[in-house]
Design a protein that fits this description.
Helix content is 46%, strand content 13%. It has 26 helices and 16 strands. The protein binds adenosine-5'-triphosphate (ATP).
């Protein structure tokens, strides 16, 4: 690619740096020479090299100052932020008096005021087809999803003939939905508080459960806990009554049930014999499949007898009801966050809530996700579930949360792992850019776990001495049991802790946040410690309980890579990783 000197200078490159720039022949060489350039020059060169247009580069460089400003929460008044033409392009300008008052009065985060032009366009444009937004951790996918919800709810509010319509903003877990709702309350409380509310925020599991309850569905949907144990017992009863085909273990039967039969919605032997089992590690011939089908039928029959249902059953039942009465729902749109965790039945349900025909009447589907962060094993190809994005797939590339140093480390954990784009293609973080710089992640090798724990406590004390708020620090663990251990150790060192911040109200409480990596999804902290990354603890031994063969084993390792990637990308500025003995093979110390 040739870019003229004049053009580079117009984008902000210093003239005296041009000779050095002209020696660079590849992106790798540019990355290696980062230290040699002025930071702004580097940012411009990088953006040009990965194909940004001049306008995008200008927006990016103008943007970085303002996002920094917002993240540091300086006291600048809102009207001084919108004086320049450049900032007008890059920020979200309040459209109502209420929005403006909130922006001026409240302690707002960056995302409530700023939107990058790419984000703004995505959230505020009208589309004829479903839209998919991909982007690495911290690129503002959730922010875009929230602004999209606000935009669509604004349109409903503005048109009295649409009164009663609403936007369904959904995500994978109830915890993530809670966080979303708390943030949305800052952006557009009037839509949540309206009667009836113009935006409904709920996990898809719960949505399906409520929907079926209103339709007098008799079966209890089993998510976890005591009912889950009853299903485990059911499997044991079924195994007593059936001989397993040669070479097939109980673990394999259960994995086949979850990952093929339930995930793909297979309901009869004929379909099961024909279904492609892509990704499964153990071959099953016709004969074995027929034998397994008897086991599956028996398990299903017993489950129905006990009036229990698995989440995929619930999705399927809801889809069936909706297919018979599609027009009755109030939803003008479905917006999906964390879409990488949604399986086939979930996408089919979303399609059933907004059937294709309804798109002609202005109803819409908007999906955001990042398969690098898939921490559960469900996956799907959206177009195979009837959600055809017809080229409406967009990528967000700028990471507003983590420093370049933390981002690079987090990406190294998932490097080489093939990652999908939720629609049958592949995805990559090659063009991911972090907007800020900071210290390298601290990698700490210890002799024992006790030493690790006292190291984490000393680290927290030193951050406190540097005036970092305890509530801005998190310790993230792979296992629930470790959360308690960490809390005990920190308490002994005189450090106040809090198990989990489920919503905004609690973020005001003091105390270091100690939680599992899974529950940290959707959150962010100034400083994050991740202990217990030794070869014997990460992944934890019991993680492999459901592995039926080598392919499952690999899958679980990939899942734990993603989990560590998620945990590391929760850190905005400081990341500390530790292990005792040998480190996990998932990191390069
Ligand atoms: N245009 C922007 N200007 C300033 N800050 C922004 C902007 N967009 C997003 N942010 C901030 O970046 C951080 C990450 O945003 P968000 O949580 O939406 O990203 P994400 O892509 O959903 O992340 P993840 O996939 O890791 O959950 C948040 O602190 C958000 O406020």
């Amino acid at each position: 690619m040739h870019v003229a000197d004049k053009q580079l200078c117009a984008l902000g490159v210093l003239e005296e740096e041009l000779p050095a720039i002209r020696t660079i022949r590849s992106l790798e060489a540019l990355e290696a020479g980062e230290e040699d350039f002025d930071p702004l020059t580097y940012q411009v060169l990088y953006a040009v090299a990965i194909g940004y247009t001049d306008d995008e580069v200008n927006a990016l460089t103008g943007m970085s100052d303002q996002s920094q400003t917002a993240l540091h929460r300086t006291e600048r008044a809102f009207d001084t932020l919108i004086v320049t033409e450049e900032s007008r392009q890059t920020i979200f300008i309040p459209e109502t008096q209420d929005d403006l008052r909130r922006a001026l009065d409240a302690d707002l985060s960056g995302w409530e005021i700023f939107l990058h032009p790419v984000q703004r366009k995505l959230a505020y444009q009208d589309y004829d087809d479903p839209v998919l937004v991909l982007g690495g951790a911290g690129t503002g996918k959730t922010v875009v999803a929230m602004h999209r919800a606000k935009h669509l709810a604004d349109q409903i509010k503005a048109d009295p003939s649409r009164s009663g319509e609403r936007v369904l903003l959904t995500t994978f877990t109830a915890n993530a939905a809670k966080i979303l709702e708390a943030n949305l309350r800052l952006l557009c409380p009037e839509h949540l508080d309206a009667l009836p509310s113009r935006i409904e925020v709920i996990s898809l599991d719960l949505w399906a459960a409520h929907f079926l309850k209103r339709r007098n569905h008799a079966r209890e949907i089993v998510f976890f806990g005591e009912a889950r144990e009853r299903l485990d017992q059911l499997w044991q009863d079924v195994f007593v009554d059936h001989a397993l085909p040669e070479g097939v273990s109980e673990t394999l039967v259960k994995a086949e049930w979850t990952q093929i039969v339930q995930a793909k919605g297979v309901i009869d032997l004929h379909a099961y014999l024909k279904i492609p089992r892509t990704g499964r590690g153990t071959a099953l011939d016709r004969h074995k499949r027929a034998a397994l089908w008897q086991i599956f039928e028996d398990y299903r029959a017993r489950m129905i007898l006990l009036q229990l249902a698995e989440p995929d059953d619930a999705y399927r039942d809801a889809i069936e009801i909706l297919s018979a009465e599609p027009a009755k729902l109030p939803y003008a749109a479905v917006i999906v966050d964390e879409a990488q965790e949604m399986g086939e039945q979930a996408f089919r349900l979303i399609r059933a809530i907004i059937p294709q025909a309804a798109e002609r009447n202005g109803k819409s589907i908007f999906i955001v996700g990042d398969a690098h962060q898939r921490i559960h094993r469900r996956r799907a190809i959206m177009s195979a579930c009837g959600i055809n994005i017809r080229g409406h797939s967009r990528r967000l590339r700028l990471n507003y949360r983590t420093t370049q140093e933390i981002g690079a480390w987090a990406i190294s954990v998932v490097k080489g792992v093939p990652v999908d784009n939720l629609d049958g293609g592949t995805d990559t973080l090659q063009d991911h850019i972090c907007l800020t710089h900071g210290a390298e992640p601290e990698l700490v090798e210890c002799l024992t776990e006790a030493e690790e724990l006292s190291g984490v406590a000393a680290w927290i004390h030193s951050l406190s001495a540097d005036e970092v708020q305890l509530s801005d620090i998190a310790v993230l663990c792979a296992r629930r049991a470790d959360v308690d251990r960490v809390r005990d150790a920190l308490r002994m060192s005189g450090i106040h802790t809090m198990a989990l911040p489920p919503d905004r109200d609690e973020t005001r409480q003091t105390g270091v946040r100690v939680t599992t990596m899974q529950r940290a999804k959707g959150l962010e902290f100034l400083a994050v410690a991740i202990p217990f990354l030794s070869a014997t603890s990460f992944p934890p031994g019991d993680a492999f309980r459901s592995a039926a063969d080598a392919a499952d084993w690999e899958d679980i390792i990939t899942q734990y890579r993603a989990l560590l990637h998620v945990a590391a990308t929760r850190a905005k500025k400081i990341l500390r990783l530790s292990w005792s003995g040998a480190p996990t093979g998932l990191i390069q110390p």
